[in-house]
Specification:
5 strands; Rossmann fold; binds cytidine-5'-monophosphate; alpha/beta
Length: about 200
């Protein structure tokens, strides 16, 4: 069984994907982390994330980079969304995601294009979304807990910028697959969102 969980930043897709993986005892891949590693590697190389040659070179990042706490930062998220525009970067990361998705026994993957490009044959496709306001508030709380101060408006602005970049790019833009189950988490608690996602999986099986 392949479970594809797509959606914008801070929609709750990562939390839902992890919970589904634990519930169904399936391995989980956060594909955003791969793009974040490329973004971080471009930065470490002193390259330009908007240059397709620099970005492609960064796809051969060392495995250990995936454990780097810097990958979680807002800065790296911004770099990830810039390198992920280049089709050559997406191609370079395709095989790794495809192999993970098709491993015997199944898998859960979360990202932007799992249900549309990486595993269009997935038995379960969830498109997790939420209003910019709800997402900004969650991000603000997360950052606050880590001792980082930022204005809610600045966070919302950054989310809008990243949404625009992710939905307007030509190659594998962020969009729900036609057969995806759309889950709006704006007014749901974590537990409610996870319960709704499990319900959707049960219905799809
Ligand atoms: O999900 P996360 O915020 O970690 O992703 C960082 C960036 O990586 C996204 O803004 C998006 O541009 C890119 N990404 C992508 N395709 C994926 C996962 C992430 O283009 N499957």
């Amino acid at each position: 069984m392949i479970i594809a969980v797509d959606g914008p930043t801070a929609s709750g897709k990562g939390t839902i994907a992890r919970a589904l993986a634990a519930h169904y005892r399936l391995p989980h891949l956060d594909t955003g982390l791969l793009y974040r590693a490329v973004g971080r590697q471009v930065f470490l190389d002193g390259g330009n994330p908007d240059d397709p040659v620099d970005a492609l070179a960064a796809t051969s990042f060392p495995e250990a980079l995936l454990a780097d706490p810097h990958l979680r930062s807002e800065e790296t998220g911004g770099l990830a969304s810039r390198v992920s525009i280049h089709p050559t970067v997406r191609q370079a990361l395709f095989e790794r995601q495809r192999t993970f998705a098709t491993q015997p026994g199944g898998a859960v993957l979360d990202g932007r294009d799992i249900g549309t490009v990486i595993a269009p044959e997935a038995q379960v496709k969830l498109f997790v979304t939420a209003s910019v306001e709800a997402r900004a508030e969650r991000r603000w709380r997360e950052m606050h807990e880590r001792g980082i101060t930022a204005s809610l408006e600045a966070i919302a602005e950054d989310l809008r910028r990243r949404d625009a970049r992710d939905t307007e790019r030509k190659d594998a833009p962020l969009r729900a697959a036609p057969d995806a189950w759309v889950l709006d988490t704006s007014t749901l608690s974590r537990d409610q969102a996870v319960a709704a996602a499990i319900g959707a999986v049960e219905e799809a099986l």
